[in-house]
Write a structure and sequence with these properties.
This protein is mostly helical and 90 residues long. The chain is built from three helices and no strands. The chain has one domain (6-71). The protein has helices spanning 6-19, 33-43, 61-71.
């Protein structure tokens, strides 16, 4: 597999892992409200803020880790919010 294909496969696996077979039809991308709230607080105090929304950008863990390293942050914060259930109606 070419290196250019690896992130695409990783992202598909990440989505499948989180949403199982519901990911094909029922997943919604929500705005990163809590990230923006926390980021706004920090930004109001004069610091730069950059939000990487892996779900909205369909990025898997390896891609996120690489991008965070490339950005070379002084401090990084990961916010994980689960507002969905993992069950299927009969």
């Amino acid at each position: 597999m070419a290196d250019s294909e690896r992130p695409i496969q990783e992202e598909a696996i990440a989505k499948l892992t989180v949403y199982q077979d519901l990911g094909a039809e029922l997943t919604a991308i929500e705005p990163p409200l809590w990230c923006r709230l926390l980021g706004g607080y920090v930004q109001d105090r004069g610091y730069a803020v950059d939000i990487l929304d892996s779900e909205a950008e369909n990025k898997g863990p390896q891609t996120v880790a690489r991008e965070v390293q490339e950005r070379q942050p002084r401090v990084d914060e990961m916010v994980s919010i689960a507002a969905h259930t993992s069950w299927r109606m009969p």
